Amino acid sequence: MDKKIWCGVDFGSSKVGTIIGEIQEGDIRILGFSFEETDGIKEGEIINLGKTVDALQKAVSRAKEQAKVEVKDVIVGITGSHIEGKVSQGFVAVGKGRESGEISEQHVAQAIENSKTIQLAQDQEIIQVIPNSFRVDHREGIKEPVGMLGVRLDANTYIIAANSTSLRNYELALTKAGLRRAAFYFQPIAASYAVLDEEEKESGVVLADIGKDTTDIVVWYQNEVIHTAVIPIGGDFITHDISIVLKIQKKIAEKLKMDHGHAYPDIAPEEEILVELSRGKTKKVNKKELAEIIEARVSQIMNHIKREITSTEYRDRLASGIVLTGGTSLLPGIDTLAEEILDLPVSIGEVNIAHDYSSNPRFASLFGLLYIVRHLTPHKPTKGVKSKEIKNALKKMWEFLKENM
């Protein structure tokens, strides 16, 4: 049996996570999992290289110790307001003149490659190319064109681009930690593969990952990525609001949010709690008042999500509603409030794998790094062109997708 060991590193605004897993015949087994809290990253950008490297080294070291393996090349999850998504197309001639030819994997890879010829800002570069569907001559919506006959093959793709300087800083952090970047992945895309099933992505669904500094969105329909967005508001804004309104230190506000927070005041308990402050002082806080503070900011986040969804043509086609991930989605009542604002069914995402942290939506994008690799890896790879990026094991199409998806 062909077994492969993969290592993923997820750079979040509150933590750096590392996961090491074995993928065999499509099954994932977690060998190592660790994370280290850090304030070296803000809104998806490294603001303190030393702190980021320190957190990365600690997380990777613990994961390697658990897995009992050495790792060098890693797949990397990132986010940030500098990341942008665009729809694109690319084509390749298959036959000669008007004569049909058989579509090969090389044709598919070339059509996808050609879709990269889009206009980008000077400081941007492509990190992912997601093949949504293909067109063979007049036939639309084809998912697997290899082996079909046609004169022309068109690839409909969704391209993710990121700021070049931000990417170089992440690569520098990896280098200082003794690692090497194999591929970058946009975090909500990775999380989608971990928590969404095929039926949800086919029928229409939004994944909204509410992190510390940003809320990342990806809209799926007919198993295609339709829209992505990064909203520069996250759970830390809630903590800041609590700190300002209640006049307490931010670290105390964060603990109060985590231990007693509720996003829907109507069902929050009407009781007071005694909060320990600095210098031996205490303060009484009403839980319903706390919930009202939280509700205001969560409502703002949900209204931003609503605007992003409405900006697409698919607002009324999202049969599977919204799936929330990220640490903020742990707030009690957030699904109720979200359903009220978005007028769509809302659920909290979980990873369907046996692991202590798989039910915690805070780690969806970290688990997703392994799931996205599984998605890109054929269960029974054939002999052919080898991949130069990851383990030299897959054919040219899979090599391209791993470098860019």
From TrEMBL:
It is found in: Cell membrane. Gene3D superfamilies: 3.30.420.40. GO terms for biological process: FtsZ-dependent cytokinesis. Residues 6-195 form the SHS2 domain. Its main location: membrane. It is a peripheral membrane protein. This is Cell division protein FtsA. Belongs to the FtsA/MreB family. GO terms for cellular component: cell division site; cytoplasmic side of plasma membrane. The keyword Membrane applies. Keywords: Cell cycle, Cell division, Cell membrane, Membrane. Self-interacts. Interacts with FtsZ. Pfam families: FtsA, SHS2_FTSA. It comes from candidate division WOR-3 bacterium. SUPFAM superfamilies: Actin-like ATPase domain. Cell division protein that is involved in the assembly of the Z ring. May serve as a membrane anchor for the Z ring.
